[in-house]
Design a protein that fits this description.
The complex is a heterodimer of chains A (about 110) and B (about 850).
Chain A: H1 3-23, H2 29-56, E1 62-63, E2 67-71, E3 76-79, E4 82-83, H3 85-108
Antiparallel strand pairs in A: 1-4, 2-3
Chain B: H1 12-22, H2 46-57, H3 65-73, H4 79-90, H5 94-104, H6 119-123, H7 129-145, H8 161-171, H9 180-187, H10 193-200, H11 207-215, H12 219-230, H13 243-262, H14 269-272, H15 277-280, H16 288-314, E1 328-331, H17 337-347, E2 352-355, E3 365-367, E4 375-376, E5 386-391, H18 410-433, E6 453-454, E7 462-463, E8 466-468, H19 472-486, E9 495-502, H20 525-536, H21 538-546, E10 556-563, E11 568-571, H22 579-604, H23 616-625, E12 644-648, E13 656-657, E14 662-666, H24 676-701, E15 714-717, E16 721-724, H25 736-739, E17 747-752, H26 755-764, H27 766-773, E18 777-782, E19 789-793, E20 796-800, E21 807-811, H28 813-816, E22 826-830
Parallel strand pairs in B: 1-2, 1-9, 3-5, 5-8, 9-10, 12-14, 12-17, 17-18, 21-22
Antiparallel strand pairs in B: 3-4, 5-6, 7-8, 10-11, 13-22, 15-16, 18-19, 19-20
Helix pairs in contact in B: 1-11, 3-16, 4-5, 4-16, 7-13, 9-13, 10-13, 17-22, 19-21, 19-24, 22-23, 24-26
Classes of the chains: A mainly alpha (about 110), B alpha/beta (about 850).
Chain lengths: ~110, ~850
Amino acid sequence: MELSNWIQLMIGIPLLGFLISLAVPENKETWLSRVAFFTAGINLLSTLVFLVFWILQGGKDLNLKEILLFKNDQFEFLIDFFFDRISAVYLVVGAILTFLVTFYSRYYLHREPG
Amino acid sequence: MNLHAQGGVMGLEQILHELKHFLPAQAPLKDFVHHNTLHAYQHLPFFQGLKQASDQFGYKGFLSLTEYRSLYREGKIKGAILKKILEDQFGDQANIWLVKLLDESQERYTSPKIGQFRSHWRSDYHFNLDKTIHPFLFRLLSAYLDQGISIWSFPLEAKGFLDSIRQLQLDSYSSIFTSKRVVKLLQDPNLNLEVLLKILVGDPRGYGWYLFDQQFAHPGWSGMVSVLEEQPESLLDSKGITLKDFIMVECLLEINALDKKFGEKWVPLGQKFSYDTRNLFEIELIEELDLVRQCWQEAYEWSYYDEVLAGIRAVAPTEGSISIPSFQALFCIDDRECSTRRHLEYIDPNCATFGTPGFFSVEFYFQPEYGKFYTKSCPAPVTPKFLIKETAKHKKLSSDVHFHQNNHSLVRGWLRAHTLGFWSALRLVGNVLSPSSSALEVSSFNHMDPKGSLTILYRGEEENGLQVGFKVEEMVDRIEGLLRSIGLVERFSPLVYLIGHGASSINNTHYAGYDCGACCGRPGSVNARVAACMANYPEVRVQLKARGIDIPAETQFLGGLHDTTKDELLFFDEDILLEANKKLHLENQEKFVRVLDINSLERSRRFDTLDKNKSIGGLHDAVKKRAFSLFEPRPEYNHATNALCIVSRKSTLKGLFFDRRAFLNSYDYRKDVDGKSLTRILSAAIPVCGGINLEYYFSRMDPDKLGAGTKLPHNVMGLIGVANGADGDLRTGLPYQMVEIHDPIRLLMVVEQVPELVHQVINSVPALLEWVSNTWVHLVVLDPNSGDFLRWVDDKFVVYSPLTTVEHLDHLQDKLLSSQQNLPVYLIDSI
């Protein structure tokens, strides 16, 4: 799979986890926690695997398809999915922290409403 | 409470006295000791007290009707018990009341009286005074009282709160107060509270109500100030403060805020709205809904008590053994030791265990090596005259560079973040994934160096008015008192263990509440070691013999400490043991290891997040990890579910399973014909166990006002209390995580003794009479002659016959992991 496609799919992991969590009743704490744990775990794992492949392929910047929001003669406003070395660091740190928070929240937030 | 009885206007001193009486009496965190949260109402019958507390302060003392009805449907409130209670209360009207309880009665909420007077600032002056004042007031007070958590300390020596503010105003370039009137008032050396109240309230009849409203808008901070005024020694870094000073500063801030908003021409609150302080304390009439709640609560309580009494009745009488037990072990009466003793007696049926308050009758202050201060090591109301000093073998406690205060400063903080920060982050990740012990852990075993020595024998040294060590005769008095109170005066085993208890946790602000209450919220290690050492002194033995307690020369006492969180046990001074006793001790240690494993298994059933599919050793390891998991708000459940205090021989309870809900105090009625031991036992057990029980009761019933709510948003303030966020009021009571599994029922005291003697003992101590006759605890006497249970009702005994029967279990472990809920009373054959 193309790295650019792969990274776009990875955005779907937390989104999918969030949607599944909405379907779990609020009083099923163990299930909610499992959904969160596996979502954050898969997210972290896929991030690490992605990074390995990305580094093996030279660690080049990825500039994904742009979404043009506004354009006139002088100005162009677009959303550009850009991934470089700095993004990589943030991606890994973010994934690790999310996983850790999810991991300890199982105990720390046990029986907390909300 | 005599406000109502007085005619005319109350004096300010009297109002302040009553305020202190009603404010929460919770000491700083390090001295946290459980007490009756509604101590101010203890002179009233329990249910009348709840009524007053509800109408005056809005405190909830009952579950909701929906919860009671749900407990009834689940069978936790038994139909037969409810029927009996209604019949006793209403006679032939019982069925009408049953319908009211089950169906007709509806919940009704009324606004409490407190807060009504001052609410006019908001509703009629359109000014939220509390929102303007509180954040600043709390920051000011917390900086003043700070015990070492702040980066910048209070700039003046803390000799008085008002004087410090006055000095601060004089010395500062900027001004705390903006109103010229307030600045002038502050500088007046004759400033008094009455002047301020005249400006704020105007009408002297309303002064008391206004001050109650004002102080109960932040009962946590006001209660702390009141406690510190009464017990200034609670703060290691001494701070002079009085409630009156604190109130005056608050009144000045209020006038300042009102002047700023309206100028100096505003009408005092009491001149617009008339409130008479005496009305705040009127005795409220009990209504139908109150009776409905009372009946539900009584039925809830007796549904469990009835099982307990049925269990005691079902115990087969045993002939007292004449052989010497393999060993004897004295534990604290603490409910957490209830299961430890049970397991020990099943693993070694020839041993004998006893329960006694965990300070083992030796009261003293303890000064650890490298410790600047003395810590009390006996029940909080006792004032010791003795000091025990430690000479430790270890070096000064190591500190952890990752948790240094300099981390918060600009330059050094930046440097540390860029050097140690990375490793700190890695360590944190490691600790989250695999919790392990760290410098942050409060470990019961660190309270005293087990290899160090203690100054137990008095050698003529005095220090700060305290005698360093005990004289031989003083030791004899204490050891005799200890042994006689539990009836251990003969048939001594070669080894007698004195096992104190403590707890370990991390990231836990209420850590002192987890240790031994009889040792003033400290681990009982020093007391166990000191008492054992005293009992081993040859001179003490000689004098004990002269007093009728002949301890054989080969009998040795050995101190120890049980960590109730990790379920670990450490013995002290093992090297003094005789060769024969060393061998016995080694055998016993193996038994203790098994006991602790099974105990952790029994405890693990309550831990919802713990995976139960493990071996018994694996479960024990998982239980241990809770003590040093940064993210675990429930290292253990402490006294949660406590409901009983039984003062009896162990044989009276043989084979009964109380699910760790009982304080067990050993007592042999046959060896206490004059009731002296019973007086001593009940004088400690009723207030201590009753206080623990009621703190759990009220924190569970009203987690928001009488409890501390969830502990997750708690911030430590000045190292003395916790508050939600940075500007909130101090939270008193217990966090929800400590009480969530607690069934809120009052304590049932069961005493095995002839009723006439118990009646005499209770009546001889006014404080005990208040507890019992006002039913803040229930009292049932087990008459050893007739075998009858006699319940204390309206100052006399009434025979009580249990309605239920208890189930007989062959093997307890079959049931243990089946449920996280409270288990019924069982009669068990084996663990």
